[in-house]
Description:
The protein has four domains: 122 residues, no CATH class; 138 residues, RNA polymerase sigma-54 factor, core-binding domain (Arc Repressor Mutant, subunit A, Orthogonal Bundle), CATH 1.10.10.1330; 86 residues; 69 residues, Arc Repressor Mutant, subunit A, CATH 1.10.10.
Amino acid sequence: MALEIRQNLKLSQQLIMTQKLQQAIKLLQLSRLELVGEINQVLESNPVLEEYQLEDKGPENQEADFLSPTWEGQEMAVPESPEINEEKAAATEMDWVRFLQDRLIPDTNGDYEDRETPSFENYKAQATTLKAHLMWQLRMARLDEQGDHIGTLIIGNLDSDGYLQATIEEIAAEVGCEPEQVEKVLAIIQGFDPTGVAARDLKECLLIQISALGPPDPLVCAIIEDHLPHLANKNFQAIAKELTVSLEEVFRACAVISQLNPKPGRIFDQEESPYINPDVYVQKVGDDFVIILNEDGLPKLRINSFYLDAMRNPNQLPESVKNYIQRHLDGALWFIRSINQRQKTLYKVTESIVRFQRDFLEHGLDNLKPLTLRQVAEDIGMHESTISRVTTNKYIHTPQGLYDLKYFFNSGLNLAMGDQIASESVKEKIRQIVQSEDPKHPLSDQEIAEILRKDNVIIARRTVAKYRGLLGVLSSSKRKKPPYHDREVVSA
């Protein structure tokens, strides 16, 4: 059969993601801070848009004149799809005059003195880092130029835990010296504060700290050098058997080791707690929950009056100028409409979550219910992808605390009576059970599952192990406290 090239016509329908539609979808998944940055970027690129300042006062009916224009080409092309048709209808029904006038109301919180003041960040003390602390000690050691260079390279190759990540040979090759010289400088740095810093592994880190305490105990050193895996698994019988000592001596040595710090650098390089500015506030007023969108700091947008005046007589403008203004007016209207639609969608989704999770908002985590994106989508008549986008990187402040909006969407486990309980509630129950257990006799995963079954939660042992791992809880064998925790710690 011969091959030949033919031209065929085919008629089909497809949804085209226009630039405007992509922008509307992008705005949905932006957090509040990212939205501010996006608005500022559009303000720089679109001359028709301007940020409204409190001291500005324009004609009262400027926006009304623009929103019912007589200039040509005011109709906007929007891809036809169920989701976009809904957004288009919502935007058409919107009272644009009131929308823009609401943003022209000046704040009346009192007089504001516009003056330049130093940023609050300038008053914040800078935390001392591990490397800065070690560099200060290196300068005080008064080494020669080569020793100072070697010491700087060693400190620069430490990780956040204080361990050396480069080999002696690599540092010697970088400096151009013998490895013995690097070893000498490394020994000096290992004597710096914090004790145990610049070690190459856990064993060396613990031995440095033991040596700093005084004459080292041979049993303690033997356990650190040869029996760290047994110590991690709390297999004290194996240590006693291999070292031919009594369990009492092993407990005493392990008590000393438990006082050491396996990550000495962490006391300096601690991460700062992030501060989250919520996108939505939910407050209880009487018997109802009130939803408030956080618009504090969002720039107030309006159309520039110069371009409004110019477009009142479009026939007097050159064709290129008229097309330029019309194109940017179209983009400005779409952008303002997209922001308003984003806020309305966020409000609807939050309102639906509040309806589903009302018991949680009133009584706490034990009353959190299983919830899916499909349930919220069907409740407010939107697509699941829209719900997923609008809940991305958004935080909500509730009477129970600050939560990510995604937190409310979780799977469920069956109860004995046929109902379901949220997986997050089960995790909280497991955490409470572990906290209340006897440290000398920790509960196994099977025992935890049996306790939950008594509370009518049907759960398998492997599911308990999975949730325990997500909570960062060790297994029962590693949670068991050895007898030396009940005794007085004896130093080496």
